[in-house]
Amino acid sequence: MNKVTFNVDRCKGCGLCVTVCPKKIISLSSTNLNQKGYHPAEITDMSKCIACAMCATMCPDTVIKVEKE
Amino acid sequence: MVVFDRPKALSDVPLHYCPGCTHGIVHRLVAEAIDDLGVVDKTVGIAPVGCSVFAYNYFECDMIEAAHGRAPAVATGVKRTNPDTVVFTYQGDGDLAAIGTAETVHACARGENLTIIFINNCIYGMTGGQMAPTSMPGQVTTTSPYGRDRKIQGSPIRVCEMLSTLDGVAYAERVSVDCPKNVLHAKKAIKKAFQNQIDKKGLSIIEVLSTCPSNWGKSPIESLEWLRNEMMPYYPLGVYKDIDAKEEDK
Amino acid sequence: MSNKVLMKGNEALAEAAIKSGCIHFFGYPITPQTEVAEYLAKRLPKVGGLCLQAESEIAAINMVMGAAATGTRVMTSSSSPGISLKSEGISYIAGCDLPCVIVNVQRGGPGLGGIQPSQADYNQATKANAHGDMHVIVLAPSSVQEMATLASEAFDLADIYRVPAMILADGALGQMMEPVDFDAKESRELPEKNWVTNGHGGKRKKNIVNSLFMDPAALEASVIERFQRYEVIKENEVKYEEYMTEDADIVLVAYGITSRICKSAVIAARAAGIKVGLLRPITLWPYPSKALGKLADTAKHFLVVELNMGQMVDDVKLAVECRRPVSFFGRTGGMLPTPDDVVEEIKKIAGGIA
Fold it and tell me: Which chain B residues are closer than 8 Å to A56 by Cβ?
């Protein structure tokens, strides 16, 4: 399975990754807060990830690591 | 297989920028270019005054913090005394196109073998949202509260167009980081701007249309839309000068 | 035997810079220092260096900053109005602890002023170069020989203490011709420059040259560390010349071109039976306050002679601590006093003492 990892405590919850994901599998957590107090981005269904890295491309804080199977 | 990870030339520290500010994207692209070309050990970066003042903390190369607008002069001093270094400046619109206009224009006129990364986000970010030389006509800022009036505050400066008239400029391109496609293209342009310096071609400037959600009073997503809808028509993307392309045309 | 050559002060200074290993110069034309840049423009390309004419004084001093940050010996020169423009850069260079040499061949002011010799930038050079808690080392030559010797010394002092050094000359010294011996100065031991930003080569951690501190405690600590270095400079680097002061009732205090006029006045006054001496500060910062304080034990009166409306006189008063009267005589705007003018002032004071 492809894998997207977030450096959660660096995420500022800006949501730029959310809008560019072609599979619409990223959302800002509605329940979790990170150290900085932001709702961090998270993957809702990793099995749908195509490892296109568009999320990482748009992330201003280089929070995202993308691995392809 | 790792498809995407942070570049090594980008320091592994949190950036101080506001959520959704695209400075972070451009920082990463600069670091990727430095990594791709394998020059982190001989690169000297010049940080400006403005939101990116702390850029000296974010790159793994030697860094100098310059006075407001003076980065191209400081870079000239570094490069002229150490021609084997790779020197880049990272400057905002107030730094490069207002207080540092003379330093910018003359570094270009001299054809200093430098790479300038110019962030145009139409506003002074660090001081809290004042009018920039690149602020759009009608744009409301804290110092143009009724909107920028061309009759009073003049018109925004199109930096790439202006600098492309100077013989010393090898490469001038305006790019944007509003969507993945444009980010990938911006990466190519920035890498080329560094490669040109390594090839001793003269001055390369990459103007990056960028956002400032906090001071624009917009969400990060709305900011990208404003960039596309308001900035891009006034500041068209594209190559304004490329001495290589000219040679091919001949 | 020494090898003396006849040169203009500005050119001697420029040649001394080259001989001190400074082969990079960034400047902007302004009278009366232009010969410095013109001389270097001819010479530097022949020794593998560079003389770059910047778009402004502001750009020139920032080019100096960039070059200095790489550990390169570098110099800029200007004249009064141009030094004002360099203020910003001087503050950043001081704040970044970078060594460099700045030459001010002073002319009359304020504003555009004139182009004749002046010492009206004393306060600016010694007390208010630019914003912030900072100093530069200020050396005041009084001959073409010293234009050369002190230029070399300035590079060493700047490197040793990581403090910018200034040569405070004037239009007369810059333009006059005298014999000069470039071997006159002994070289000093210099520290290794491990703070440079010239590409880390993968051999060391990255260096950052910076004067920004968001944490006030860190900024205070950085300024205090710099002022501790200033104290060492004050302790070790004060230079002055005393001339016939041992038995002097009246001590003249003058530097630069004015000190030469005063020397003639001392001789003339002594011939007239008045015991006069001269203390000539060579370093204006650090200032020879202790030497002046000591002279206050024996001298009865101090007369400060300057090419301004009275600037260094304040430092003499501070050094003498109200123990003796301190008088002032000056001309300004590019006017020079004659030795007779100074003798007249001496006679007025001598009449009071007697």
Answer: 3-4
Query: Chain C residues with CB inside 8 Å of B106's CB?
Result: 54-55, 59
Fold designation for C4-236: Rossmann fold (3.40.50)
% of chain C at pLDDT higher than 90: 96
C72 touches chain B (CB under 8 A): yes
Report yes or no on B8 lying in a domain. Answer: no
Residue C184 pLDDT: 78
For chain A, give the percent of residues with pLDDT over 90: 97
**Strand-strand pairing, C165-170 and C101-106:** parallel
* Parts of chain B with a pLDDT under 70: 246-250
Contacts of A60 (CB under 8 A, 6+ apart): A12, A14, A16, B15, B17, B20, B21, B22, B23, B24, B25
Minimum Cα–Cα distance from C24: chain B residue = B81
Residues of chain C with CATH 3.40.50.920: 241-353
Predicted pLDDT at B249: 57
Measured between CA atoms, how close is B220 to chain C, in angstroms?
27
Print the SS3 string covering chain C: CCCEEEEEHHHHHHHHHHHCCCCEEEECCCCCCHHHHHHHHHHHHHHCCEEEECCCHHHHHHHHHHHHHCCCCEEEEECHHHHHHHHHHHHHHHHCCCCCEEEEEEECCCCCCCCCECCCCHHHHHHCCCCCCCCCEEECCCCHHHHHHHHHHHHHHHHHHCCCEEEEEEHHHHHCEEEEECCCCCCCCCCCCCCCCCCCCCCCCCCEECCCCCCHHHHHHHHHHHHHHHHHHHHHCCCEEEECCCCCCEEEECCHHHHHHHHHHHHHHHHCCCCEEEEEECEEECCCHHHHHHHCCCCCEEEEEECCCCCHHHHHHHHHCCCCCEEEEECCCCCCCCHHHHHHHHHHHHHHHC
Domain that holds residue B95: 23-249
What ipTM does this complex have? 0.97
**Which domains are present in chain A?**
3-67 (3.30.70.20)
Query: pLDDT by residue (tens digit) across A50-60?
Result: 999 999 999 99
> So what's the pLDDT on residue C1?
55
Q: What is the rounded distance in angstroms from the CA atom of residue B221 to the CA atom of residue A9?
A: 21
Query: How far is Cα A33 from Cα C253, in angstroms, rounded to an integer?
Result: 71
Q: Does A have 3 or more CB contacts under 8 Å with C?
A: no
Of residues B34, B18, B39, the one with CA closest to residue B84: B39
CATH fit for domain C241-353, picks 3.50.20.20, 3.40.50.920, 3.50.50.60, 3.30.2130.10: 3.40.50.920
Q: Does pTM surpass 0.95?
A: yes
pLDDT of residue B250: 47
Domain count, chain B: 1
CB pairs under 8 A between A and B: 70
Whats the size of chain C, residue-wise?
Answer: 354
CATH number of B123's domain: 3.40.50.970
- Residues of chain C with pLDDT below 50 are none
Best of B1, B3, B218 to disrupt the A interface (most A CBs within 10 Å) is B3
pLDDT for B113: 98
CA distance B12 to chain A (A): 9
Enumerate residue ranges in chain A where pLDDT < 70: none
Which pLDDT score is estimated for B176? 98
